[in-house]
Amino acid sequence: MPEQAHEITLVVNGTLRRAEVPGRRLLSDCLRHDLGLTGTHVGCEHGVCGCCTVLLDGEPVRSCLTFAVTVDGREITTVEGLADGERMSPVQRAFAECHGLQCGFCTPGFLCTVTALLRENPAPTEEEVLEGISGNLCRCTGYQNIVKAVHRAAEIMAEES
Amino acid sequence: MTTKLFGEPVQRREDPRLLTGRGRYLDDLGPDALAAAFVRSPHAHALIRDIDVSAALDVDGLVAIYTWEDLPDRLAEPLPLLIPHPALTHGRTAYPLARERVRHVGEPVVMVVARDRYLAEDACALIRVDYELLKPVVGVEEAAQSAQLVHDDVPGNVGAHLVQEVASADGRGAREVIESAPHTLAFRLDVERSASMPLEGRGVHARWDADDSSLRVYSSTQTSTSVRMAVAAKLGLPLPKVEVVAPDVGGGFGVKIMHPWPEEVLVPWAAMLLGREVKWTEDRREHFVSSAHERAQVQFVRVGFDGGGRVLGLEVTILHDHGAYTPYGIIVPIITSTQLPGPYRIGSYRVEFSSIYTNTVQVTPYRGAGRPQAVFCMERTMDRIAAHLGLDRTAVRAANFIQPDEFPYDQGLIFQDGRPLIYDSGDYPESLRMLKELIGWDAFPEAKAEAAREGRRIGIGIGCYVEGTGVGPYEGGHVQITSDGRVHVSTGLTSQGQGHETSFAQIAAAELGVPLERVSVVTGDTRRFGYAVGTFASRAAVMSGNAIALACRKVREKALRIAADALEADPRDLEITDGVVHVAGSPHASVPLATVAVLSNPLRYAFDEEAVRATQFAGGSSFDRPPVEEGQEPGLEGRDYYSPIRSTFASGMHAAIVETDPLTAEIRILRYAVVHDCGNLINPMIVEGQIHGGVAQGVGGALYERMVYDSHGQLLNASFMDFLMPYATEVPRVETAHLQTPSPLNPLGIKGAGEAGVIPVSAVIASAIEDAEGIPIDRMPISPSDLFGLRRAAS
Ligand code: FES
Ligand code: FES
């Protein structure tokens, strides 16, 4: 028997999007496969790695632990929505400058997490940075340059504000 | 070279794409593809009595169900044994789908194809497989003694047995030397299983074009060329009809050099049969139980040495757990046994390993590939000698170092490439000096005493290694300059985050004298370059880097010859600056490479303004010579290969200071220092990044990561919740210093860097904990509760 589909409406990266999804569809799959926004990655599907982090009404959430139907009507920002047109956001630029990514698979999750972190706390201490990214796994970088990139992003934001 | 690009920390060219969500990883491809999912064995060892698919047939969106019985011809045979070796007398590989018997939890039994992954998994859940349970063989020592066999025709569960022996200068074997040595020690060491664990699992996408009978396969692999050959052979397709592309790959670390995985042949086969795109994306649990693991070894060591700590004789016997199958041969234990002597001149060395079957996931290389175990063994031995003699640990190492004037140094062993293991260059005493200075080795006892007065326990540790990098047989590069002045570089090996698009572009830009922005690099796409081996063994920069440099030199020579004609100059007087060929010292007599590219290809038809210059009535060509001269080809392009006579040997030394909590036995790394020598650096920023990442994986292996199998062969911690990979909070800041002893073996003087960071970490952390605690540390990883147990046992 075909599954029952639910129509949902999301505002993704500022654009109104509609999708027909079964109740069990994960938000990560909905973004990636129904809406074609494949920048959000899935590294574990059980809420530990943080690769799938997106901003839900500005707050970081794990899209692999969220059913798409439960966020009907809400606002979502994915990695595709962080840049200002062609100009990358301060966080994105800082990651490039500090070599904060290698394979890039964990990166969208870090970028969303860090974007929210710096909005809350524009000048975090070393401890606060570590704490802030301690829910995201990266298997490539050893985190050192990610930490550096967070501080650098804070600096760029301060310079540009 | 006109532009200083080689050796600069140039920002990565792949980053803008990856930072904005425009990377293309495997699961991002084929939005309309059918999805494959697998029924995998829940048992470690069992016979398959029956497979009943009837309940699954009603699942909406189901397209097909396949078992071993459905597989045709060569697909029904076992998967290839990739690296045969005379000592691997009992190599065994799996069938793409299990035939009659399963030998580890996670082995694929049934493939389901459906409209999407959810539905495919629904169908999998409804398929009933009736198993007859067999006694599982778990644990390498148990397996070596067990009457129960993983493969009925492999007696004693021994897949391979190999002895290598290097006699002393006076011709005596290690055992004899040890017997008569002034001091001897004997002990046992244990290293547990870990795994590459890239954040992107494996994945395959295949598209069959029935109109021209061709197949395009995307795989998250470290070797697209070899997957291509395997797919063509397994499916009986002509090689030119198969193309394999590695898209953006979310980390590999070794697990993706293994191939063809069952899914890499099954998914393309299904795509051909069904005439539809088919995709399979591995989930994390699948990765834990069906992709490869590594590391697990038990080592028995006997060493004889003199009063100065010089190793006169060393004998190591290794039990290596290779899991249920040996598709990758015995590369890992070969590397352990041959890289074990490290930077030392060992009087006489005997190493013996048995590679043993168990009912667990197969073992294939994970970053470091047997070296972390080797270094753990050698460095624990050095520390034991120092403790026995009451000498400083660095002094014992220094007493054994191969000296800078002894290169090339022949260790007398046969390496993983089947060639003599001869170190090309290095400077170990200098490396040690730099490390001691960086970490403050000599001042540490004071700090330790000071800490002790405050009731704190700290310890310092050290580990040295030599790493054979850039193994052959070869890699190639192709460079083409098109009439718009752009430079297109391709090489067959793949990328998994190492920044090849950047470092290879740096090499090409420097060799050709063109701006970096004009160079683009493609890797791992057989449509662009068909001959390659793959990315593993820290070989990409050495192999493809040099091949690309050589190809650039060919193109440069051709460009200068054509430009010399056009400028009526001697090619020897020409230089290329910013993409313009000009007479040295006279920038006005010049011709842009774009024009040279036009002139290189004599045309009949003009396709744009610039092309007019190369057409047949444009003049400029001599009537006495053919438009394309003998031995020449049209186009400004070149291809070349780099094939070294043997590996080049990078080296390094790490030191750490750790603190152990006197009450809770928690272990904290306070400082971590690395001195690293990979010859000439192409991009120091990228090399540092590789080291950081390697150290982090090493810390995981030293303190957190283990694959916990129970006696039934169930992997108890097959999730990120339970398999503890380090987060930012667990990894120390890494302090690095570079020593550069160029390799004399290759034109660019480079050595590999990819694995360096991970190799000595377990040895270093063990050394530091031992120093802090005064208790011998002989197994890794070590958790607070392990340390707590050791304290109990010691008191
Ligand atoms: S994929 Fe969501 S946390 Fe790992
Ligand atoms: S950059 Fe590869 S996992 Fe973080």
CA radius of gyration of chain A: 16 Å
* CATH class identity of the largest domain in chain B: Alpha Beta
Shape of chain A: globular
Bound molecules: FE2/S2 (inorganic) cluster
The total domain count of chain A is 2
- Give the % helix of chain B: 25-40%
Give Rg of chain B in angstroms: 28 Å
Task: Calculate the terminal CA-CA distance of chain A, rounded to whole Å.
Answer: 56 Å
The mean pLDDT of chain B is 95
Q: What gross morphology of chain B would you assign?
A: globular
Descriptive notes:
The complex is a heterodimer of chains A (161) and B (795). With 161 residues, chain A is an alpha+beta fold. Chain A has two domains: 5-81, Beta-grasp domain (Ubiquitin-like (UB roll), Roll); 90-160, [2Fe-2S]-binding domain (DNA polymerase, domain 1, Orthogonal Bundle). Helix content of chain A is 34%, strand content 17%. Chain A has five helices and five strands; from the N terminus they run E-E-H-E-E-E-H-H-H-H. Chain A has helices at residues 27-34, 90-97, 107-120, 126-132, 144-160, and strands at residues 5-12, 15-22, 53-56, 59-62, 75-77. Chain A has a five-stranded mixed β-sheet, with helices on both faces. In chain A, a hairpin with a 2-residue loop joins strand 3 and strand 4 (59-62). In chain A, helix 2 (90-97) packs across helix 5 (144-160). The N and C termini of chain A lie far apart (56 Å). In chain A, 58% of the residues are buried. Chain B has 795 residues and is an alpha+beta fold. Chain B has three domains: 2-16 and 473-642, Aldehyde oxidase/xanthine dehydrogenase, molybdopterin binding domain (Aldehyde Oxidoreductase, domain 4); 32-134 and 202-249 and 256-290, Aldehyde oxidase/xanthine dehydrogenase, a/b hammerhead (Aldehyde Oxidoreductase, domain 3, Alpha-Beta Complex); 371-469 and 646-794, 2-Layer Sandwich (Aldehyde Oxidoreductase, domain 4), CATH 3.30.365. Chain B is built from 18 helices and 29 strands. In chain B, helix 16 links the parallel strand 27 and strand 28. The longest helix of chain B has 28 residues, at 540-567. Chain B is globular, with a radius of gyration of 28 Å. In chain B, 58% of the residues are buried. Chains A and B meet through helix 2, helix 3 and helix 5 of A and helix 1 and helix 16 of B. Residues 42-45, 47-52, 62, 64 of chain A line the site of one FE2/S2 (inorganic) cluster.
